[in-house]
Amino acid sequence: MKLTSGRFELTLSDDPTYTVGSADNVQRYDHEYCFVKEYAPVSRYGVICRESGKTTHSCILLAGGGASRVHDHTAVLLHRACFVGVGDMLCSLSLPNLHLKWATNVDTATCFGVYYCLEHDCLLSHGELEVARVSLSGEIVWSASGKDIFSEGFQIVGDSVEVIDFNHEVYRIDIATGRCALA
Q1: Is the dihedral of CA 18, 19, 25, 29 positive or negative?
Q2: DSSP 121
Q3: What are the pLDDT digits (tens) for 57-110?
Q4: What is the pLDDT of residues 143-155, one digit of tens each?
Q5: 80 and 126 in contact (C-beta within 8 Å)?
Q6: Nearest C-alpha neighbor of 113 from the set 90, 142, 137, 134
Q7: What pLDDT was estimated at residue 7?
């Protein structure tokens, strides 16, 4: 996945063989951010920042929860920051140095994706079990869940999030309040 913001280009990629502290890692990173303490990470994302085509900084994000992979909604670039959903976490990296600004657990299981809502100036986390509104400083404003996992769809529709669970039930969540109702 490649993202561009001004003169910065970020590349995010899965690095499933990365092992903390190993000299045998294929890729070396400037920074290592591990969000799990008691067991091995299941999601491993390498992030590389390039400026004018030259690699300037890199980091590896290591998270637990359910396994996740890099895809189109893994990250958002905004205000000289990169917001990344990895495993059960949402984190913010500063540009261009990729220093960790904050990391927040946004789902009991897995963060499927992160979205920016301009009208409310917030991030929306599409989790397996919860949808969360997160401030740009990493605070969870509200979190909403349904009867089953949110595996069948997610979209922003006006001032609401429309999310579909495993049983194909459609939920509408008000972005301002977090009120959730079946559609």
Answers
A1: positive
A2: T
A3: 999 999 999 999 999 999 999 988 999 999 999 999 999 999 999 999 999 999
A4: 999 999 999 999 9
A5: no
A6: 90
A7: 84
Handedness of CA 101, 106, 110, 114 (dihedral sign): negative
For residue 5, what is the enclosing H or E element?
strand 2-5
The token pair that represents 108 in the structure block: 């009991």
Quote the Cα angle for 72-116-127, to 5°: 65
For the chain, the straight-line distance linking the first and the last C-alpha, in angstroms and rounded, comes to 33
Model-level pTM? Answer: 0.94
Closest CA to 62 of 27, 85, 89, 35: 35
Whole-angstrom distance, CA of residue 130 vs CA of residue 137: 19
Contact 148/166 with Cβ under 8 angstroms?
yes
